[in-house]
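Changelog note: in this version the structure field was regenerated for every chain. One regenerated record is shown below for reference.
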Amino acid sequence: MIPLNTPVILSFVGDGTEQIIFPVSFPTFEDANIEAEIVSPLGESVILVKDTHYVLDSIGIPNTDATFILEVSPDFEWTNPNGLKQDYTLKIKFSTNAFQPAKLRDLGRFAPEVLEKVADRLTMNVLALRGLVTEIASEFQVLSDKVDTFEESISNLVDENVDQQQEIDALETQASALGVTSLDHESRIAALESAPAVSFDVELKSANFTAEFGKVYVVSNSSQSIPGDGLTGAFPISFAFVNSADLEVKVISPLSVVTVLESPLHYNVLDTDIYLQGGPFAWISDGGFGGLEVGWTLVIELNNLSVTLPPPDANKIIDIKKLGSNLVTLVRSGSEKIDDVASNKSLTSAKESVTLISDGVDWFII
C-alpha cells in the first residue's frame, strides 16, 4: 500500500470511456513525487510501477500541469486495449520530502519562482500531514473498537468462569454430602441389601371391574376347563362376564387338537351356562344326543376385559398391566379424554401396560 503520509489527491473510476491520459492538477517537481495505486471492484489493491505500468510527462515544468499516462497491456487486469477498465479505480497520490531544498536568500531574479515552489511544497506537505492525521484517526478508532470488543470478551469470560466455578463448587458440595470413599459405597450397598422389600398394592383382575386410585392392576384371561363325561352337555360358567361375545369356547381332543366353537352352531349361552349343540360333531357323545365325549375337554375363556376408570382427580395415578393376549378396554366414566382423545383406550398387545395420571379434567398416559 502507499504510505499513510501520502494523501490521495486524484481518484479516477473507469466508466467505460477507457481513459489513458490523466491530468495531474497539483504542483509536481520530480517523478518521485507521484505514486499510483489501482483498486479492483472487489477492493483488491495493486501499487503501480513507473515505466512499467505508467509514464509521466511535463514533470517539473513551471506553470504546466504534469500528465499521468497509463500503460495498457493484456498482462494488466485493470486495462484493456483502450485504457482503464470500467469499475477499476486509479488513485494518484503526492509524495514529497518534508525538508525544504531551496534557500531563501540571494535569490535574485529567480525569487518569485523559488518562493512559489516553496509555497507549493509547504502546501503539499500540509496536505500530506492532514491525510496522515485523518488515516491515523481512522485506524485509531478501529483499534479502539477492537480493544472495547476484547475487553467485553474478557469480561464475559470472567463471568462464565465465575459461573462454572460456582457450579463446580456446588457439585463438590453434593459429592461431599454423598460421600466418595469405597467404605461409604460398601456401607450403602450393605444397607440396601438388608433393607426390607417394598410392597405395592397389587390386585389381580380377571373380570370386568372398576379401577381405583393407588393400585397396580394385573389383568389376565379368566378361564375354566371341564372334562367330558359322555353325559353332560350343559356347563356353568364360573367367572363373571358381560355378554357372550366376551367368551371364547373351544374343545380339546384326546390328541390335544384344539377346535374353536362357534355360537349358535356349536353352543348357546343362556344366563351363565353354556349348552353344547348336538349333531354330528366329534366331541358329542351318543351320535349327537348326549354330552361332551369322554376324553375331550371343554375350555371357556374370557376374551375381553373392561376397566371402568374413576372420574378424573388431580394427580391421581392408575397402573394397569395386561398379562395375556386378551383385549383390555379402558372405559371412561364420562366425557373426559384419554391423551386428548375423547374415546375409550384399548390395550391389544400381550404384556402391554399403561400408567394413567389425571389433571383433574382428563387422563394422560405417562
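Spot check on this record: Residues 1-5 have pLDDT under 50 and may be disordered. Residues 222-302 form one domain.
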